[in-house]
Design brief:
The structure is a homodimer. Chain A is of the alpha/beta class. The first copy, chain A, contains 15 helices and 20 strands. Chain A has helices spanning 16-27, 29-36, 67-72, 89-98, 108-113, 115-125, 141-148, 163-175, 179-188, 197-200, 203-217, 236-245, 306-328, 372-382, 412-424; strands at 7-12, 40-46, 63-64, 78-81, 102-105, 129-130, 154-160, 219-220, 227-228, 247-258, 261-272, 284-291, 295-302, 346-347, 349-350, 357-367, 387-392, 400-407, 410-411, 433-437.
């Protein structure tokens, strides 16, 4: 395959997410290069401490304590900003844009406060700002709102966008513990910061809501304009009463367009227990959108964490890299329709159905006589199918009754053979019914 | 704002979806032109019957019975193919690509069978194929797999991708009716074709699975290679037993990468009742993906229908139009980071929190004395807050007890005023707790 010169990446900050990005770049290096048609290359990392890590390709020579020097380097194409916080992140991004670099950032606190400045600077410089990782971690909500839903008018956005709060509320609801204990659980599991105030008080969700509002409704909103309440006041009693009334309590980031006036608020909210958002548990995030033409849609996934967030950062890097490569060749950036060059595409090697392994639900219609269940079970056993549970209902000597079983994992070939043998031995009055179970999905 | 020459669209087929596309183009004309920086213009429609419809901008002069002539017209930029079926759709798309047009299609039957031909022809011609509408209707699963998840390796895909089957299975499960009656319900509600075989037998889901496999695993798969079973054999008894065993029955399109061998199958499947996929009801679709770095994510929405599908078609049109405009100006297609030009962005007009209207959960800690509930209720009433339900538990003359209420829709300003009055009148022993309810989301 024709290979272009590499796309060179500068990384600001190598905390948890930065390390995840480097890990993923290294782990999937060939796949990424194939999809892009050029390698991604780490050109430098700005970090206070020079702590090389060869396992992720980080040599001492790559590390600099001077981020301003890194964003000025003429050999770097894309700057990934993972410092967090307002400064120096804001100034560095503006410098990078002015120096002709594209930027990728996960910094919702800074972007929500300075959206106008950053995005306008990018537009004036003709450069890109990727910020998929800033809301919903690995959930592609930024490109969904800016691209997929571009032809529709959005009515409302309801987001579970803070995994820490959702974990705490889920724990309080499922284990009947108080807020304080649930917070300790979250901290023990690494799902809450040592200082969890920004999460617990709803401010992190408010930052994300500002970006969602700008994408959904096309206007700028500052975090201070969002009515923000946290979850520390939610009691066990309220959760129990909510359940009685048919609701679950979630910290929602809510935005609605009320005839040009934007309603934007973050607070503990009761949602109907049968609504899909009520089933978004643990540290998961979900953004539920109502559009005029599309109706309801929801986007669900891990909203934080090293590797999920790294996938979002690298998705932005890949998209921008493709645009830069096209511009180098003087072409417009035609996206490959499948996300990778087709020249070398192969036909699938298909696994035969007989080799598929899963659990099975089995229903046999059999005469209600002693020994029938045993005879069926022994045929199954001879074919390496073991039974996880049996339901045999009622007794009725006059007619056939259903024998229902759930199998452990078995191979389709063995199941087919066993069912044929059971029919042949006339243990059943009709063809056995079976339905495959996907247990671990 | 600077306006470019229009992007000119040719439409093949004006059935339900085609009409939806024209409707949306007209309804959101200004919004689309603003986002794009140029108007979208309907240049012609190929249809057997010349039936003008001024309400969607369709004059007799725009309609031609000759689709081959339409795809050859030099003034057209983008061809939208909504004929469905293998021919003449396939030949027309290839002709359009050869004539330098970009194409957008919702035709999963043809694309899944001829993916190699169509996508390679597009790549060779340097043109785009948009096919977001072919899988999951308005759910942006195509661009999610090809762009958002580009840096990750996918492990498995589990999709509810046929709304007709999901509606039937949901109806069977919720109303304890048999397959035949549920099918009649679906047909009555317009959710199943008069000839529903392609849906019911799982072939439509298999077509979609082929496209998902190509996007997720980078290989070509033909519908004939997918093990495909439909839902007509699912009985009411199986659904009931499934429930007893802790499962729901869904028609799933399943694909896994087993060390380079692709497992691809469509069949009725039992999924754990607490799994998010089990809650995808009615005509909704959802695609659940497991990735190595991202973990689980799910994309949920209406998988069919006129307007949801039209949003996906127009999202592709907008993206391609942007690339064409950039190429005209000799620039690379830099996407606007927010999906629209920023020059004219405004600050949000924010609705004051006091004006927000919602339902409220209210908890008062009050002395367990006669008259207290009445006094609280009358203060609420005077402030235009009406009570939907009350939970008052136990009796305990010694201490305060919780009085829990759910209000009807009320204005935040009124609620705050009422709660202040209740405190001032010392009807409660501590500040009333309230949680907002989002009932209609």
């Amino acid at each position: 395959m024709h290979r272009s010169e590499p796309i060179r990446i500068g990384l600001l900050g190598r905390g948890k997410i930065g390390t995840g990005v480097l890990k993923l770049m290294r782990q999937n290096r060939d796949m990424l290069a194939n999809k892009l048609g050029a390698p991604l290359e780490l050109a430098g990392v700005a970090d206070k401490i020079v702590a090389p890590d060869p396992s992720i390709g980080l040599t001492a020579a790559l590390i600099t304590p001077d981020p301003a020097a890194l964003v000025a380097r003429p050999d770097i194409d894309i700057i990934i900003e993972l410092f967090g916080g307002h400064e120096p992140a804001r100034t560095l991004l503006l410098k990078a844009l002015a120096a002709g670099k594209d930027v990728v950032s996960a910094n919702k606190a800074m972007l929500s406060e300075h959206a106008g400045t950053i995005f306008l600077a990018a537009e004036r410089a003709g450069r890109a700002v990727g910020f998929e990782a800033s809301v919903g971690g690995g959930i592609p909500i930024i490109r969904t709102l800016s691209q997929a839903l571009v032809a529709d008018r959005q009515r409302s956005v309801h987001g579970i966008v803070n995994g820490t709060c959702n974990f705490i509320l889920t724990t309080m609801s499922e284990h009947a513990v108080d807020f304080g204990d649930a917070l300790k659980d979250a901290q023990r599991d690494g799902l809450a910061e040592a200082n969890p105030i920004l999460d617990i008080d709803g401010h992190d969700a408010a930052h994300k809501l500002c970006l969602l509002v700008t994408l959904a409704f096309g206007v700028l909103l500052k975090p201070a304009q969002v009515h923000t309440e946290g979850i520390s006041g939610v009691t066990q009693a309220d959760i129990a009463y909510a359940r009685d009334l048919g609701y679950a309590i979630k910290l929602l980031a809510i935005a609605k367009d009320d005839d040009g006036r934007i309603e934007a608020r973050v607070h503990p909210t009761m949602v109907p227990r049968r609504h899909l958002l009520a089933f978004v548990g643990g540290a998961f995030n979900a953004i539920y959108i109502n559009g005029e033409a599309l109706g309801s849609s929801m986007y669900y996934g891990l909203g934080a964490g090293q590797m999920p967030t790294a996938t979002a950062v690298l998705a932005d890097v890949m998209e921008i890299a493709r645009e830069r490569l096209a511009a180098r060749d003087g072409k417009s950036a035609r996206r490959h329709p499948l996300g990778f060059p087709l020249r070398s595409i192969k036909n699938a090697r298909v696994k035969p159905m007989d080799d598929v392994v899963c659990e099975y639900y089995l229903r046999f219609m059999a005469a209600d006589k002693p020994g029938v269940l045993g005879a069926i079970a022994s045929v199954l056993g001879r074919n390496a199918i073991s039974i996880a549970s049996v339901i045999q209902q009622g007794r009725d000597a006059e007619r056939t009754v259903p024998i229902v079983m759930r199998s452990h994992q078995a191979r389709e070939r063995n199941l087919k053979r066993a069912l044929a043998a059971i029919r042949q031995r006339r243990l059943v009055s009709e063809a056995p019914a079976f339905i495959r179970i996907e247990e671990n999905l």
